[in-house]
């Protein structure tokens, strides 16, 4: 896997401009008014995002990615399947091919994917890092099933080789960058923010045949110079299945970062579901989406005390002491802070407690009636303890 190791040495600015040129040379379009640059202009190593260089009108096309440049499963290539297919094995296999193409054949997109940081989402960490994460969540707090990201979802369902680092990296990148089973260059450059989401897709790729249309990304509203352009990874126009249950912990699990407010937390075992909203003065409020119970809030209070104990035990330790990479250590404590804050907001909220949630069915969490998903698409990824 020297390709994976050498990749980080490529200059990312060059990789990005080659990628844009390649899209343009192959029938695509990328608007001149957008720029792909590090989020912190002074820190070339900071993550990249998309920014408006000048004013952009609402509805203006930002980019058009033709069907041929999209990485998708061979099943899709025949163009017969519409709607969601049940797994993403096909797009993973194709991504592996794109990333392992020979020097003469590799596309600028393959090179860009190769340059991405390795194993940065928790499902792909070292065993020690994952064990510490599970110690933190106690198989009770979300996100659930971190070991399934590779094991159940790729090894078992796709029959994939989890011992090959390039394969593992491709799986992680598909989970962190794809629009379910389409990995779309340029569209995958937009960062996530539910409060500032300002782009849209002209055509929902799961509701119509996109062989002719490809992905057309448009401005959701008027954009100002220097504004960052944001997608939403769970509330976008075609995010139906993800809309209800996929909150801040699940964003963290799949994409490896803690989202800003607004956040959604679904504590399935305590049957507590909340949105955390921030007003223009930075005041955070808790919106209970299902009436909480005393039993549930007590469970979360107990978890908060346990988390305090955990941080106390580790406060004088470092990544080196534990023997894990600093990316894992730093990310874990970032998530800890978000989890701790969410539990603090929820347990100190002045909400009337009622027991109704415990007499509801397993779908208690969609009882609020704001659900978007179709009837058979409601599900929560259950925790290990839930299955006992
Ligand atoms: C679809 S890609 C977005 C483009 C990516 N930043 C890049 O440099 O190519 C998703 C990845 O971007 C990063 N990301 C997206 N939104 C973010 C946010 N709001 N804060 C921090 N990182 C974010 C995460 O690393 C995530 O796995």
Please, could you describe this protein's structure?
This protein has twelve helices and 13 strands. The chain is α+β, with helices and mostly antiparallel strands and 388 residues long. It folds into two domains: 2-126 and 150-234, set domain protein methyltransferase, domain 1 (Alpha-Beta Complex); 263-387, no CATH class. The strands form four sheets. Strands 1-4-9-8 form a four-stranded antiparallel beta sheet. It has a four-stranded mixed beta sheet with strand order 2-3-10-7, with no helix packed on it. The protein is globular and about 60 Å long. The protein starts with a helix and ends in a 40-residue tail after the last helix. The structure holds S-adenosylmethionine (SAM). S-adenosylmethionine binds next to β3, α8 and β7.
Strand order of the largest sheet: 1-4-9-8
Q: Count the domains.
A: 2
Largest sheet: 4 strands, antiparallel
Principal-axis shape: globular
* Second-tier CATH architecture of the largest domain: Alpha-Beta Complex
* Gyration radius, rounded: 21 Å
What's the tally of helices? 12
Provide the list of bound ligands, each named once.
S-adenosylmethionine
Oligomer state of the chains in this structure: single chain
Strand tally: 13
- Terminal residue distance: 41 Å
Strand content: 5-15%
């Amino acid at each position: 896997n020297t390709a994976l190791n050498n990749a980080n040495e490529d200059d990312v600015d060059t990789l990005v401009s080659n990628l844009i040129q390649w899209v343009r040379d192959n029938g695509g379009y990328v608007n001149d008014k957008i720029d792909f640059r590090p989020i912190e202009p002074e820190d070339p190593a900071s993550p990249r995002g998309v920014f408006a260089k000048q004013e952009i009108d609402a509805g203006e096309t930002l980019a058009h990615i033709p069907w041929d440049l999209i990485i998708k499963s061979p099943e899709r290539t025949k163009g017969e399947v519409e709607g969601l297919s049940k797994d993403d094995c096909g797009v993973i296999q194709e991504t592996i091919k794109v990333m392992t193409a020979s020097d003469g054949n590799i596309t600028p997109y393959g090179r860009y994917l190769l340059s991405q940081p390795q194993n940065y989402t928790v499902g792909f960490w070292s065993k020690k890092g994952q064990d510490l994460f599970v110690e933190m969540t106690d198989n009770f707090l979300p996100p659930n099933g971190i070991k399934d990201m590779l094991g159940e979802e790729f090894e078992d369902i796709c029959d994939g080789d989890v011992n090959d680092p390039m394969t593992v990296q491709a799986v992680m990148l598909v989970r962190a960058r794809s629009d379910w089973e389409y990995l779309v260059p340029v569209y995958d450059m937009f960062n996530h923010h539910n409060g500032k989401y300002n782009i849209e897709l002209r055509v929902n790729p799961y509701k119509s045949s996109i062989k002719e249309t490809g992905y057309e990304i448009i401005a959701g509203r008027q954009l100002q110079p220097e504004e960052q352009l944001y997608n939403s990874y769970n509330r976008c126009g075609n995010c139906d299945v993800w809309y209800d249950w996929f909150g801040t912990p699940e964003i963290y699990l799949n994409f490896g970062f803690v989202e800003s407010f607004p956040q959604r937390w679904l504590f399935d075992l305590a049957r507590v579901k909340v949105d955390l909203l921030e007003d223009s003065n930075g005041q955070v409020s808790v919106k209970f989406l299902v009436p909480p119970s005393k039993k549930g809030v007590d469970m979360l209070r107990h978890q908060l005390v346990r988390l305090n104990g955990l941080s106390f035990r580790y406060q004088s330790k470092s990544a080196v002491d534990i023997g894990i990479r600093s990316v894992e250590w730093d990310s874990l404590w970032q998530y800890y802070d978000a989890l701790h804050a969410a539990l603090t907001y929820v347990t100190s909220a002045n909400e009337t407690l009622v027991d109704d949630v415990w007499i509801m069915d397993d779908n208690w969490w969609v009882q609020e009636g704001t659900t978007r998903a179709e009837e058979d698409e409601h599900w929560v990824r259950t925790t290990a303890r839930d299955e006992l």
